[in-house]
Write a structure and sequence with these properties.
single chain; alpha+beta; 9-stranded mixed β-sheet; 7-stranded antiparallel β-sheet; 19 helices; 41 strands; elongated; disordered N terminus
Length: 794
């Protein structure tokens, strides 16, 4: 039950974003880490106590009790604590009513006046019948009179003395003590406009009484609560030990203020009390399409009907009582009071998971609810936590190479496991798995394997760089208990993208896809590298690429290990070697703004952790990267995650290339010296459209001298041949058919000229100089033509 309507709740959901499907191994945090993240959000949003459950694939895979249910008595949240469900109670009312529909006791389009002892008529549209379907979809033209009625009949710390029938008669019947032609009804004709209404659902509860010839609460208890083993759930405070009841809190002068335990005659709309374990049983019934413990509570077809939009033009997110969150594609209901959400019961059929959350906080727990959605969406019984790749030492998996994998696994279910067989598979003829099976002796719930599982691979001939998916399949006693996927990159790529993002929502934001698409749209190959999920690299590995892109992604209020000393040393050594480095992120200055590394290597001062103006970046005139380019860093198809884009200033030879809209505050800088650097103090992935991201990436790569004219050079296999290519240390020979003197130039992967000589026109073969391992472009030019060849030395 809430003063905010369901539409507002779904609008809030819209602002958060869709759960992304990324492609890296660390798909989710552990359950214990999730608890810590939730505790941080509870403190941030003044939530005193919280109890939550996730079920998936007919199992409870995670649960938690956190904080205080009653701050005055010091009662901690446990499985024995009851919370008020608020408007999530409506789900029980709806299911109870549809049980009677299944018994053919009414039809959805019947006028409700055929079943009432008094008449309910919209005063402005007396000839329009109000039907059951209208009431259940919130399109009946009925309004909630909070200030004049509902607040006045609300009582605290004892049960309401007003019966359901008396309330409904006095609220809906002309002449009733609560009736108001302009307050009990909207100004819209029934069936033409959506308006969320608690009193409409209260009337549905009264109709249950009349049709079933049984008290509403007794009917719900007999037909829903007891079959679901919700034995302590009740509408009445008198049936509860209030010493185990969660109190409701608001904030007043930064202090929690208790409101006491509510009761109200609107019982069917929001006054069922329940526990975490008992609402879990309700979720099991929903995911089992109406069945619990092999007993039917509601037919699956009926439950499907309730979760079908009834009025798509006027109520596109409402079924029969059930609400639809189209952003996260879940069905269910929320509940709350005082403009805040306190309960959430939602499920997703195609992924077979359900989330329920109960709390007594002073502010909205939306961030927590979406964390639970994300965890449920990605949950796997066992996950790959860290992947150690052991090759010849350079982390470049190339032709005919032996590779060992050591993988740390985490048990993400609530039971301990033992004797788990692990099999690794992939579908690619260029990768041969020579040792594909290992066994986990035991792995405790929530814990990592004591020793990593081990596998052995061997590459075949690799024509070009590619990303390959691997699957780990887990089985116990011959029964598969789960799978998880990860990827490895084989061969070489031109650009390295390092992901340094440990936030829980990283998959939801999916920033990596924006970087990759911008690189690939500029005709460069790229390799993604999760620095928190694979071996820690060295500067030689970074130096194998034409440029390194490093991004930090979302804020992380719990775990913030951005640019630790080891990472600063790695980047510093890479830059000292003349690297090309593009770094982007709103939190870089927050993490290391006062360090020598920030000043001396990133050439910036950190001025402000949060820019409070309009989130738009505008290029600085006459700069190679920024000139004439401007874009929003919110909205559009960006990540929409810039909560604290920071302000910097260039120092030590750097120059400003972007400033924030209508200000002199700097949003991006570049530096050109012994190395080249571009630093954006906001997330590149937040730029609101693909075209601007592509344009900015092209300018950055041009600044790095990577977009040379080599791609435009005319080539001819008949006139120039270099062999063997690729070379595994063998001497390279050039076979040519030049008729005039020709110059040969060799460029390394950074675009630097490393060798130049003349090729005699009188000879058809020449030897090339010895080259270190790497990727090169050889350019031949003479008075008539220019030719290029790409060569690889292993």
């Amino acid at each position: 039950m809430k003063k905010v309507n369901l539409l507002l709740i779904f609008c809030i959901a819209l602002s958060v974003g869709i759960m992304g499907q990324g492609n890296y191994n660390q798909k989710l945090v552990s359950g214990n880490t999730l608890n810590e993240l939730i505790e941080a959000q509870m403190e941030l949003h003044n939530i005193s106590g919280l109890s939550a459950t996730i079920i998936k694939n007919d199992m409870e895979v995670w649960n938690v009790n956190l904080g205080l249910a009653n701050r005055e008595t010091g009662l901690q949240v446990t499985d024995s604590v009851s919370f008020l469900l608020y408007s999530a109670t409506k789900l029980f009312t709806g299911i109870g009513l549809m049980q009677l529909w299944e018994d053919d006791l009414f039809e959805l389009d019947d006028p409700i006046n055929d079943y009432l002892p008094f008449t309910v008529t919209h005063p402005d549209f007396p000839d329009t019948d109000i039907t059951f379907r209208m009431l259940m979809s919130h399109v009946a033209g009925i309004d909630d009179n909070w200030s004049g009625v509902i607040d006045d009949v609300m009582v605290f710390n004892y049960d309401t003395p007003i019966s359901l029938g008396d309330f409904c008669y006095n609220y809906f019947s002309e002449g009733g003590s609560y009736y108001g032609a302009n307050t009990s009804f909207t100004d819209s004709e029934p069936g033409t406009s959506w308006k969320y209404s608690n009193t409409a659902v209260t009337l549905l509860g009264y109709l249950i009484e009349l049709i079933a010839d049984q008290d509403y609460t007794e009917y719900i208890e007999e037909h829903i609560l007891l079959p679901l083993e919700m034995n302590t759930s009740t509408y009445y405070l008198s049936n509860l030990d209030t010493s185990f009841l969660a109190n409701e809190y608001i904030m007043d002068n930064n202090e929690y203020y208790p409101l006491g335990f509510r009761s109200c005659p609107l019982l069917p709309a929001g006054f069922l009390h329940t526990t975490r374990e008992e609402i879990r049983n309700f979720q099991f019934m929903l995911l089992n399409k109406g069945s619990y413990n092999n007993e039917s509570v509601l037919d699956s077809a009926t439950l499907n009907l309730m979760q079908t939009i009834q009025y798509p033009d006027i109520a596109p997110y409402t079924g029969l009582i059930f609400g639809y969150d189209h952003i996260n594609d879940v069905w269910g209901h929320t509940g709350g009071m005082n403009q805040n959400i306190k309960t959430s019961v939602f499920h997703k059929y195609d992924e077979n998971w359900g989330v329920s959350m109960l709390c007594n906080g002073a502010e909205d727990p939306w961030s927590i609810i979406f964390m639970l959605y994300q965890y449920a969406h990605e949950h796997e019984p066992i996950t790959a936590e860290f992947i150690e790749v052991l090759d010849d030492g350079d982390l470049i998996l190339n032709n005919n190479e032996e590779i060992n994998l050591n993988i740390d696994l985490r048990n993400q279910i609530l039971d301990d496991l033992e004797d788990v067989k692990v099999v690794i598979t992939c579908e690619n003829e260029e990768v041969l798995i020579t040792d594909s099976v290992d066994v986990i002796q035991n792995i405790y719930s929530g814990e990592l394997t004591t020793n990593p599982v081990h596998f052995h691979l061997k590459t075949q001939e690799i024509a070009s760089g590619f990303e390959q998916a691997f699957t780990l399949t887990f089985s116990q006693n011959g029964v598969v208990i789960g799978t998880t996927d990860f990827t490895l990159f084989f061969g070489e790529a031109e650009i390295l993208i390092i992901k340094d993002e440990e936030h829980f929502y990283s998959q939801r934001a999916d920033a990596i896809s924006r970087y990759k698409s911008a690189v690939e749209n500029n005709d460069f190959s790229c390799r993604e590298y999760d620095i928190n999920g694979y071996n820690f690299p060295n500067e030689d590995f970074l130096g194998e690429f034409n440029a390194v892109i490093w991004f930090t992604g979302l804020d992380n209020v719990v775990f913030n290990d951005l640019f630790n000393e080891e990472q600063q040393l790695l980047i510093g050594n890479y830059l000292d070697g003349g690297g090309h480095f593009f770094i982007s992120g709103q939190n870089v200055g927050d993490a290391i703004g006062e360090t020598v590394f920030f000043h001396d290597y990133l050439h910036a001062n950190h001025l402000n952790p949060t820019y409070n103006g309009y989130l738009r970046a505008e290029g600085v005139d006459d700069t190679q990267i920024g000139d004439g380019l401007s874009f929003n860093i919110f909205g559009g198809d960006g990540t929409n995650t810039q909560n604290s884009a920071s302000v910097i200033e260039p120092i030590n030879g750097a120059q400003a290339i972007f400033k924030y809209f209508a200000s002199e505050e700097v949003a991006g800088i570049s530096f050109e010296g012994d190395y080249k650097l571009v630093f954006l103090s906001f997330g590149f992935a937040a730029i609101d459209n693909q075209a601007d991201r592509d344009e900015l990436m092209e300018r950055i790569l041009n600044f790095f001298d990577l977009n040379t004219n080599i791609s435009d050079i005319e080539t001819s296999e008949d006139e120039v041949l270099i062999f063997p290519n690729p070379s595994n240390g063998q001497k390279l020979t050039i076979k040519h058919n030049f008729s005039v003197p020709t110059t040969m130039r060799i460029y390394n992967s950074l675009g630097q000229l490393i060798y130049e000589s003349s090729v005699m026109s009188t000879s058809d073969e020449s030897e090339m100089p010895d080259l270190e391992r790497g990727e090169y472009v050889v350019v031949f030019s003479n008075a008539s033509k220019t030719y290029s060849r790409k060569i690889i030395v292993f």
